[in-house]
Here is the input.
Amino acid sequence: MTKELAKTYDPVAIEKKWYDFWEENGHFNAGINPDKPPYSIVIPPPNVTGELHMGHAIQHAIHDLVVRWKRMQGFETLCLPGTDHAGIATQMKVEQELLEVEGKNRYDLGRDAMLERIWQWKEKYGDAIYRQLRQLGASYDWRWERFTLDEEYVEAVLQAFEHFAEKGWIYRGTRMINWCPQCRTVISDLETEEREVSGHLWHIRYPAREGELQVVVATTRPETMLGDTGVAVHPNDDRWREAIGLQVELPLMDRAIPIVADEYADPELGSGAVKVTPAHDPNDYELGLRHDLAQIQVIGFDGVMTEAAGRFAGLDRYAAREAVVAALKAEGLLEKIEDHEHAVPHHDKCGTVVEPLPMEQWFMNMKEIAAKVRPVLVRQDIQYAPDRFRHYAIEWLDQIRDWALSRQIWWGHRIPAWYCTHCSADGLSVIGDLDREQALHEGNFRVSVAAGAKPVVSVAKPEACSECGGQDWVQDPDVLDTWFSSALWPFATLGWPQRRDALEYFYPTDLMITARDILYLWVLRMAMTSLEFVDQIPFKTVLVHPTILTQDGRRMSKSLGTGLNPLDLVARYGADATRYCLLAQAGAVQDVRFDAAVENNQVQASASAEAGRNFGNKLWNATRFVLMNIDGYEPGPCERSELADRWIWSRLQVAVREMTEAMQSYRFSDLTRAIYDFVWRDYCDWYLELAKVRLQGGDPQARRAVQEHLVRVLEIALRLLHPIMPFITETLWQALPHGSSANSIMVAAWPECDDELIDPEAEAQMQCLQEVVTGIRIIRGEMNVPPGRKVEVLISVASDEAEQTLRQANPYIALLTRAASVQVGQELVRPPASGSAMTATAEIFVPLEGLIDLDAERQRLKREIQKMDGLLKGLDAKLANDRFLTKAPPEIVAQERQRQAEYRATQEKLNASLKLVEA
Ligand SMILES: [Zn+2]
Ligand SMILES: [Zn+2]
Here is the structure.
């Protein structure tokens, strides 16, 4: 018995039901299964604060596509989900809430109470992104879910830290770091975002200490001049050769600073002289080290000017900027002010301008561990798709820098380093007015660590100090960079260091699907730690998915109003259509301009998502048609003697082969194109139409035979489409009498190509038939034959082969073109007043006498020709106009040329048609 399908395709109505069904039936589950080959993916953990954006959406459309495909292929398929604690982002979120609701900051609450708050927040909101992934259809094994602050995971992180410290790779040192004065922590390069700012370039005169020397330097941050300790010029700059080694007066500070020669100074820019502020600029920091210039920090960690800023001390850095400019103006030292657009680093989480500052921090020397990865990439043990990213990765490894590990926040993995309160006394200071002894004893959060502290790295608190025998320890207040824990992700999620069984079975994982912005700081670090701890690569292939941009090529961002919530697409078009359209656009291009119109973060419409839904709709209606025509059908043998049957089975094999190959090489747009063409064009547009001959022909045996093909081919097509559009395919598959013992399409087998069924002869014959049908339809259209009117068709062929094919296809041609009769023969004579068309194998005639009112048709054609002449005249004049050609945007000109060509083609056709009816 067949099941009822709703009349119309309503994605929202079907999607929720199937997800629960799959999960309840354990279809996402994966375990150690010696009978099956494993296939594993760990997802890049989204932030626990995360909300699904389009980057996630395409990433997970691909994840789920691949895992569904592999599962259908018979692999024990694990897709392991998890989230990242996202140190700064999460703490900031809860801190904001704390401030808004209770007017308190984290220091008011204290470390332990603050952490408790964040855990509460995590329990309450932390699974939002999981729910969103489920809505997309993600078939992940949620029982394996991991979080970077899980107890076991923490152990892995601390053990890794201890290991690196023992190797001597981890050290404390002073380096230039990115500091967020708002969040009061170090942040990574990845968290700093260059934003275009319209500012100024202030040209300041530094008077000579001796002689006539005039130095003018330009800066976008005049407040930093207070910390200048030198001026640099290029050694080959003739203007300055004499000045090298002399001193100038630093205005406002009464300080003499030297002029040094350094190739960093660009002679092409301005006067060729640049100010050097080693404590406030990464390049100046390096330059200062080369020339032994002092580092004077005039901006504090709170963004307020320090004592070293003299009379400007205590001012906020921006107030100080105005005050410094005013003072320079008053002293007549401001040469000029220019408007200046430039990029300024901002903290991506809070939007504060980042302050580069030298600071003592934990660092990791990456040289040795990076050297392990290089040969692995060169040998292509880890493959990249596209491969060019492998080359970029090697370049990055060759220039690897030390990694700033510590962060001055609380939410994260606290650094397992301890200070003896006696031996490290010089380096430990207590912030605020707490009692020192008590603060140290309690290991209070207001202890800060600086030069002079002697850390002892140990996961557990050490017993007695080896220097003094003391037992009073204070733990390092900092936590690790979030990327330190995610660097262990692929193996720590599978049980390292405690458990081996899952690692032995599922490791290395098969595929890492990621965005390109974290290819180095994350993906390569995973490779490093995996080789170090597990002695294996973490994944066999790195797949870099495209970045989704707005339709005009901008970044998608909530703060810009260009943010597109993929769940809005899901609500409007369904998860299936959303997945389909994302995959359809994942071709060779790395930047996808997504075609949705978005206003104020709200999606208005998306043609590609709509196309996805229309595709679903077409498939839905085709399945309904089949279901309505298989009453009395029982599955039986499948005979393939008819041309149409041989052809559709051949087309199907080609689709299976193309799709399997596209899957293997991650060509997702080819994948969607192959299934679209097969379902829409071959199956719906042609085969269903051809099937009607036998369905309606009255021969029960022929009817049963065609039912068999309709059902079987459709069932295989559904399986092919399933990894792309899981919900609709499950719905339709359940409604079809599929004869499978599986209770879900997601555990049915991936179709295999049967080469025996590939039938070039049937394909060639069918092509001949299709061309003839198309030719007749064109004649009907061009000659304005009313759709209901039956036509007479004459087909003149040149070969016996074509004659035979078309004779056999006679009933099909008649049905598909509404022909009362179809006469096929060699060298037929063209009847008077008839429409005609040529194909590769035949010439087609449709006599028009009596079919249409020839006189009226002549009048109509003349009118159309006249209209077209008018349009073309205007367009020709426009395109001959130099003014238009030079002034109009090139795309408009191209568009007009295109129109001109189309009109011309139409005009020619109309003229040809007119000739016919005048004959
Ligand atoms: Zn910040
Ligand atoms: Zn000690």
About this structure: The chain is about 45% helix and 20% strand. Residues 478 and 881 are 70 Å apart (CA to CA). The pocket of zinc ion (ligand 1) is lined by residues 180, 182-183, 347, 349-350, 352 (CB under 6 Å).
